[in-house]
Each structure stands twice: as structure tokens, then as C-alpha cells.
Amino acid sequence: MARLKFTAPIHIVGINPYVLVSVRRAAKLKPGWRKPMPVLVRVNGKPEQSRSINMMPVGDGSFRLYLHGRVRKASGTAVGDRVQVEVQFDSGYKNGPEHSMPAWFRNALRENAVANKNWKKLIPSRKKAVLRYFASLKSPEARERNLQKALRVLGGDSERFMARSWNNGK
Description:
By secondary structure, the protein is α+β, with helices and mostly antiparallel strands. It is elongated, with a radius of gyration of 18 Å. It has two domains: 7-89, Elongation Factor Tu (Ef-tu), domain 3; 103-166, no CATH class. The mean pLDDT is 92. The chain is built from six helices and nine strands, in the order βββαβββαβααααββ. The N and C termini lie far apart (38 Å). The strands form two sheets. A seven-stranded antiparallel beta sheet has the order 1-7-4-5-6-3-2. Strands 8-9 form a two-stranded antiparallel sheet.
């Protein structure tokens, strides 16, 4: 299995820090790959255990390796830093959400037909992000507050939820 080591700057698009992986480098990991590529990542030798992340295709054969906050924190890096990146194709990656849908969210969707319909129409990565976010909530108050906001945005209200603007249920 090919393992790449290279130095590159951390860029940002919107609020998302990333390292650009060139066409040539991406081809060394998986030739001809055009969809999100599951990889194991370390930045400046951190974290100790490689982190599983999907590199996202740019459209010209190159990829953006979005750097999760835990990776940046472990490596002590920020946007603009030049970093040593280790990337390896993650052959053990299993597609789909890491987190199951909590019963309190499933039940609320059953009771709200519009929100349920819009949930079903969301792209898989957005569903995965919502479920990951819900799994991180600690208190019952936070769960209830975020459930109500999720139901409003999925119901069609225009507001911000999870650091993005939602309109018409998406």
C-alpha cells in the first residue's frame, strides 16, 4: 500500500482548513480515483494513531485533504503553516455513518412529515455530519435545543445550524 510523505501549506476554503494533494500524488495512492478517497493521515507525525479522513476531489484529479480539528490540535498547526503530511489509502474504510440515529431524533422526524421528507433528501455526507454532531452532545438541554433547531431547518426555515445556512430544508 502506497504511503505518501510530502510538505505542503495548510490553506482554507470557507471555514475548512485543507492541504492540496496534487494529481500526481493522488495517483500514487489510487490511480484514476475520482470520488472521495478514504485515507489515513498524520501531520507532523501526529496524532500517534493515523486519523481516517476522506480526501475530497477538486475536479481536475487533485484532492483537498481537509484537516480535522483533532489532527490540527494534535500537530499544533494552523492555517498558513507548512506541514509534513503522511497519507495512506485506507483500505479498511467502511462507507456510511459512524453514528446511528438517536431514538429521540428518529421519533421527532416521524412526527414531522416535512422534516422527515427533507432528511431523506439530504446528501449522505450531510446526514453523517448531523449524526456525528448529535452524538457529541452531552446534556439533555443541548440535545433538545439542537433537536428543535434541526427540525426547524429541515422543516424549511432559513437559519444557521451546524455552522452553515439552511434554506428550504437543505
